[in-house]
Amino acid sequence: MKKSWLLFICAAGISASAYAQDTIPDAARIQGIVNYLASDKLKGRGTAEKGGMKASRYVAKQFKKLGLKTVNGSSYFQDFTFDRKAHKNIPSRNVIGFLDNGAARTIIIGAHYDHLGTAALFDGKYPIGEIHNGADDNASGVAGLLELARHYGKNGQKEPFNFLFIAFGGEELGLQGSKYYTDHPLMPLNQVHFMLNMDMIGRYNPERGIGIGGHSSAVEWPAIFKDVQQPGIKFFTDGAGKGASDHHNFYVNGVPVMFFHTGGHDDYHKPTDDAPKLQAQSEAAILQLEIQLINRAMAFPALQYVGEKS
User: Fold this and answer.
1) Is 216 a domain residue?
2) How many domains does the chain have?
3) Alpha-carbon distances of 190 from 104, 105, 139, rounded to whole Å
4) Which of 6, 181, 229, 268 has its CA 20 to 30 A from that of 17?
């Protein structure tokens, strides 16, 4: 009997260890996600293009596989339309998955899934008809979104905060998805602990390091960041809560933010931003850094928002 019990405990321990291992950000999974999202099959994930719709359905399918729920029993999709210059009623959608831990407050983790597509809606600014695959911008961020959803959804722990994972549409056309969400939130914005945004986290430059914006958007961020280190990753902080990505709309609506970005490069918004150039091992380490910061932020029951100084 004792021997059987010991074998059971050992087996449970091995199973738990494997379970935990599966939730660690993984370079091979990251590369696989980016390979699909940045493939010619999706033709650049353009807003109002078939490839963009395929990408939204892919993210929803992954959310379901990871055990995320819809909010209030509704769809994973938050559909909307917007106008841009001469283009009217452009259709897009956000993809939203909820990890309900029964908590009073929620952490939002976001990344935009759209890219330039074949550039039809950009009034000749980019070569029309050419596929802009957007591996770094922002298939890399979506891969990060899904890895963090896996980590917090599958790690066997009930965190003291809920998590809302949002893949935003229409970002390249003026932060449209995050604007729509903050205008039509699925839960009160004053119950959001903070919003973490990933936009281009796949081309790590060790000389520059990764930039983390929003460091001045909450009183507690300096304490949360204090002494945080991640092997192989150098980072620097920027105080600004505003910026040219989806965290901006949360910050101007009173939500503390963090924004992760590995910086510009020669392939930015060009047809050459392709999956083989992704640095998946470094992205996995960046996500480990994000997990450290998220976990440290969860030690505070609430963060004190700091707006722009007038």
Assistant:
1) yes
2) 1
3) 11, 9, 29
4) 229
